[in-house]
Amino acid sequence: MTLTARLATLADASWLLLLRNDPGTVAASRVQEAVTAHDHVAWLEGALADPARRLMIVTDEMGKGGRAEKIGTYRLDDV
Question: Which one, of 75, 77, 72, 74, lies nearest residue 1 by Cα?
Answer without folding.
Answer: 72
